């Protein structure tokens, strides 16, 4: 992700926080913003961008919908104050993809929001000769045959790195590196699935989407709309506040158990599509993230298929 995209993303996190705060203090309840480093980083990013108004409009659209889904935000009962917190990026390393938290400590209630600006990508991961993706993603180590297949590729990249070579000067990089690496990755994913039946698909979704339920909000500037999705895998979203019920009920999503297909995207040498049961499908595009050659490659991951029960709303602004 470019520096500009990172700044825009952080600025949108701040816009969502401010929009929530302004809406909720109007209900005459105590709302406390956690004064941490992540908050100041997001605020500083917001202060230096030019499109502040668009970010605020996109955030306000998201808040309008989330308030209809989460009555505990506006109805504290005896659970005061409401804490708002922006999370550090490091939380993503331990399986928490939420950027913004809303917490009531008295009854241990919280919801999280993942804030995206003009993109819907999920987790970015790398492959290298020293990364055991099976252990890191699924807590099940990869086989030695996988490393035997990929090590010669990364040994060659190591030599190129030492010479200061640039990716644009490598001929046929897809056939030389992307295709064989993806073939080894797919083979290992299938082997892990065979050895651990009905476990790997769900663990893959948990790795990509995290260990917590969350709302994903995506502000799309050129359409002047915000998309809100409710990823309720564990049933913690959409709870009532006493007698106050959500205006819309959100179903709990079924996690996948089966890989129906893992294969290259048609006419592509850098992207595989993983198709699972219950409507889940994942696109994984491998690419070099930098100009100079380095001994690792990065995945750009997107959900291209979602369960039919996933709550999705588009709110114009």
Could you explain the architecture of this structure?
With 317 residues, this protein is of the alpha+beta class. It has 2 domains: 3-120 and 211-253 and 310-316, no CATH class; 125-204 and 255-305, no CATH class. The protein contains 7 helices and 12 strands. The chain has helices spanning 3-25, 37-48, 52-69, 133-138, 144-162, 173-195, 200-209, and strands at 31-33, 82-86, 100-104, 109-117, 125-127, 214-220, 225-231, 259-264, 271-276, 281-287, 297-305, 311-316. The strands form 2 sheets. A 7-stranded mixed beta sheet has the order 1-2-3-4-6-7-12. Strand 8 (259-264) and strand 9 form a beta hairpin. It is globular, with a radius of gyration of 21 Å. The two termini are 26 Å apart. The relative contact order is 0.15.
Quick structural overview:
The protein is an alpha+beta fold and about 325 residues long.
Number of helices in the DSSP assignment = 7
Unreliable stretches: none
Compressed to H and E, one letter per element, the order equals HEHHEEEEHHHHEEEEEEE
Residues in helices, as a percent range: 25-40%
Total number of distinct structural domains: 2
Tell me the major beta sheet: 7 strands, mixed
Question: What is the overall pLDDT average?
Answer: 94
The backbone outline, from C-alpha atoms, is: globular
- What is the rounded Rg? 21 Å
Q: In terms of structural class, how would the helical and strand content be classed?
A: alpha+beta
Strand percentage: 15-25%
Count of strand segments: 12
Could you give the distance between the termini? 26 Å
Sequence of strands across the biggest β-sheet = 1-2-3-4-6-7-12
